[in-house]
Write a structure and sequence with these properties.
The protein has about 325 residues and is mainly α. It is built from 11 helices and no strands. It has helices spanning about 1-20, 40-65, 75-105, 115-125, 135-150, 165-185, 185-210, 215-255, 260-265, 265-300, 305-310.
C-alpha cells in the first residue's frame, strides 16, 4: 500500500506541475518579466516521464542478460559489468550523435576555439530564451528523463570507489538541466551535455571491451577517453563556465538592452548565482576524476598494468572479480 500511495502522490504532483505550466501567465504580474520558458509544454513533462520509464526498462533488460548462458566462462558479476557498460556505451553514442545533429542545425555560431568572449556570450545568451525546434525539445526532455532515471536506478549499478562523486555529478547535472530547461538557457545546456557525453562514449566503450578480454582495444579507447576528457571537460568546459559566470556580466553593465535576460538581470540574479555554483561544482568533480586518470596513467607507464587489469579509472577501491 505504501508503494501505491507513493505512486499516487507522484501522479498528483506532476498533474499539479503540468497545470501550473499551463496557467503560468496568470501568475505573472503586469510589468514584470516572464522568467519561465514560454516554450515548455505539458507534453514535455510526459516526454520526461516516458524517458524515465524507457530507461529503467532498457537498463533492467540489459542487466538481466547477466543471468543468461552467454559467455559461460565469465562470472556473473563480470557479465553484469559488461552489459551495464554496453548499455551506457550505446546510450552515449546515440545521445552524442543526437546532440551534434541538433547543434549543427541551430542558427547560431559557436566555435569555442575561435569565438571571442563577446561572440560566445551572444551565441549562448541571445536571444533569450532562444527558439527551440521540436527536435531540440525532444533531446532536452529525453536527456532530463535519462539523468532522472539514472538517479532512480543507481542501486542497479556496480558500486565504485567514487560513488559519492558519481551521485553528486548526476544530481548537479539534473539540477542544471531543470534550471536551463525551465528558464530557457538551453543553448548552454546543450553544449555542456555534448562535451560530457562524448567523453563517456570512450570511457564505457573501453570498459566494455575490457570485460570482453580485448585488452589492446581497451587501452586504445582509454587513451582516446583521456585525451577527450582533457580537451572537452578541462579546456572547453571551463571556458563555458567563465562565459556564464563572468563574461555575461559585461552585457549587464554595458548593453542592458541586449535582451530580456540582460535587461532583467536583477530578477535572474538568484538563478545565475545558483547556475554558476553548480557549474563550478561540476568542474571540480571533473578535476577529481582527472586526478584518478592521471594516477592510472602513471601506474600504467610504471608498468603496473592497472588499466589493463581493472579496465576502469574508478576501480581502486572495488572488489576485484
Amino acid at each position: 500500500m505504501g508503494g501505491q500511495g507513493g505512486v499516487l502522490r507522484g501522479v498528483v504532483f506532476f498533474e499539479a506541475l503540468a497545470d501550473q505550466i499551463g496557467q503560468y501567465d496568470k501568475f505573472v504580474e503586469e510589468g514584470q518579466p516572464k522568467l519561465f520558458n514560454p516554450q515548455i509544454e505539458v507534453s514535455d513533462i510526459y516526454t520526461i516521464l516516458l524517458s524515465v520509464v524507457v530507461l529503467v526498462a532498457l537498463k533492467s533488460m540489459f542487466l538481466s542478460f547477466a543471468d543468461y548462458r552467454l559467455f559461460p566462462s565469465m562470472k556473473r558479476s563480470v557479465k553484469k559489468k559488461l552489459f551495464e557498460n554496453l548499455f551506457y556505451t550505446m546510450f552515449y553514442v546515440i545521445s552524442s550523435v543526437f546532440g551534434l545533429l541538433i547543434i549543427s542545425r541551430e542558427k547560431w555560431d559557436l566555435h569555442p576555439f575561435t569565438n571571442s568572449d563577446v561572440s560566445m556570450v551572444k551565441a549562448l545568451f541571445d536571444p533569450a530564451p532562444p527558439p527551440m525546434s521540436n527536435l531540440f525539445k525532444a533531446y532536452y526532455a529525453t536527456q532530463t528523463g535519462y539523468y532522472l532515471g539514472l538517479l532512480v536506478t543507481l542501486f542497479m549499478d556496480t558500486r565504485r570507489s567514487d560513488h559519492t562523486q558519481y551521485v553528486m555529478h548526476h544530481g548537479i547535472t539534473l539540477s542544471l538541466m531543470a534550471i536551463s530547461f525551465s528558464f530557457g538557457i538551453v543553448r548552454i545546456g546543450l553544449v555542456i551535455l555534448i562535451l560530457h557525453d562524448i567523453c563517456d562514449v570512450f570511457l564505457h566503450a573501453a570498459k566494455t571491451i575490457h570485460y570482453c578480454r580485448v585488452e589492446s582495444g581497451s587501452m586504445v579507447f582509454f587513451v582516446l577517453f583521456s585525451a577527450a576528457f582533457v580537451l572537452l571537460r578541462l579546456v572547453i568546459f571551463p571556458r563555458v563556465v567563465i562565459c556564464v559566470g563572468a563574461e555575461v556580466l559585461r552585457y549587464v553593465l554595458e548593453e542592458p538592452d541586449l535582451n530580456n535576460w540582460v535587461a532583467y538581470f536583477d530578477y535572474y540574479l538568484p538563478l545565475w548565482a545558483c547556475s554558476v555554483a553548480l557549474l563550478i561544482g561540476l568542474y571540480l568533480i571533473n578535476c577529481f576524476w582527472m586526478s584518478l586518470i592521471s594516477r592510472l596513467i602513471y601506474r600504467e607507464l610504471a608498468g603496473s598494468g592497472k588499466v589493463a587489469k581493472d579496465g576502469d579509472i574508478r576501480s581502486d577501491s572495488e572488489d576485484e572479480d
